[in-house]
Amino acid sequence: MASATTSAQAPHSLSVEQARRAILDRLAPVSGWERVSVRDALGRILAEDVLAPCNVPAHDNSAMDGYAVRHADLRTDGETGLTIVGTAFAGRPFSGMVGAGQAVRIMTGAPIPQGADTIVVQEAVRLEASRVIIPPGQDAFQNLRRAGEDLALGGVALPAGKRCGPVELGLIASLGLAEVVVYRRLRVTYLSTGDEIASIGRPLAPGEVYDSNRYTLFGVLTRLDCELLDLGVVRDEPQALEATLRDAAANSDVILTSGGVSVGEADFIREILNRLGEVAFWKIDIKPGRPMAFGRIGNAWMFGLPGNPVAVLVTWFQFVHDALLTLAGAHPLPVLHSFQVVCIEDIPKRPGRREFLRGRLVRAPEGLHVEVAGAQGSGVLRSMSDADCFIVLPEECAGVHAGQPVTVQPFEGLF
Ligand code: AMP
Ligand code: MG
Asked: Average pLDDT of the chain?
């Protein structure tokens, strides 16, 4: 039999989907919750269903400015004259009864007076002294908003797992609730690795690079409302790294590192991680961001991201963002938008990896187009800042010609 040298030579690598699944399938929400005020719920994830303690709206009310009438009074073959007996305002209901042949002037949001069952909009009527003249053709119960029609008393107003944005704060307040129960914040430790990485605020020595990843990670983690522990830059020294990771694992749900997972360095970190926990080093069919580590150290999940600044953002968005939301209790995961637009330039590509290019959406008379946003090196943050979307080229793609549609993922909501 011929030896299996070809497959042995081909390094085993994971597709983006396989890597995502391998991560998400292992994760479950952290335990622990707290009660917070409505304002403090912004960005937090509900740990239990929010049940409506009242009907919304609280009472039947008018959807329009007009007249509250009894439908049975209205003639079908001609106009009906009704006597106006009062006015109902949103904050000042009409306390009487609408009797036969009577109508009440009513404003939007005002409770429907007793006896009335139909609202006729003011634009449709004519006034004659103290009478309102209603044309035929009015439907019974028209222009009413029913009590509980938006949210019924006791019903689930917001499900557990929902992340609270401005809309949810308003909805919670519309129920009269002052507090909700949310998952506790994730504790995330992050650090940068590399002998060449210099902290900001001092001049660079020859060969050094300022630590930008730590600030990128600070930004994306803060947007996800994590509790952060910043361990700074750790040298490529086994003892220092081991002690730091051991410490981090004891105090966090998640450890995020950048750098040190590429081929040359991985062996050195792998040794340490093997002693500390169970972390797999992956080659993923993705560009940028091919090497990544994922696993567990003690009670903490560890994500070892690549060192290149753009690779950090690509792997963050493909693998870490949803993982952290899952750990934080979000369910279902929000669907990130992607759509097809025409690419207005050629993009060379070899089949094999899924590529994420920095793109910029351009408004053209025919609709949205996309162009490549500057230099695409995986260390170039400037073009990342110029971009407003990823152009996602699938594994099998062998290049794009100007005029062809491509998939884009807007940055909005990602970072
Ligand atoms: P590594 O994955 O450690 O080999 O790093 C890959 C590239 O990313 C190298 O050019 C590093 O200098 C750069 N890099 C690594 N960590 C950082 C960081 N924290 N900030 C900016 N660049 C970094
Ligand atoms: Mg390094």
From this structure: 94
The pLDDT tens digits for 354-378 are 999 999 999 999 899 999 999 999 9
* Both tokens assigned to 244: 């730091």
Mutate which of 267, 308, 378 for ligand 1? The one with the most ligand atoms within 8 Å of its CB, which is: 308
- Residue from 73, 254, 397 nearest 406 by CA: 397
**Per-residue DSSP letter, 302:** E
* Ligand 1 geometric centre to CA of 263 (Å): 13
Beta bridge partners of 82: 132
415 domain residue, yes or no: no
- Ligand 1 atom closest to 233 (CA): 19
Whether 216 lines ligand 1, by a CB cut-off of 6 Å, is no
| Full-model pTM | 0.90
Q: Of 302, 327, 352, which residue sits at a domain end?
A: 327
In-domain check, residue 334: no
Beta bridge pairs of residue 234 = 193
Q: Which ligand is nearest to the CA of 305?
A: 1
Query: Do 120 and 165 fall into the same domain?
Result: no
Number of domains composing the chain: 4
282 in the same domain as 248: yes
Stated as kind and residue range, the H or E segment containing 384 is helix 381-386
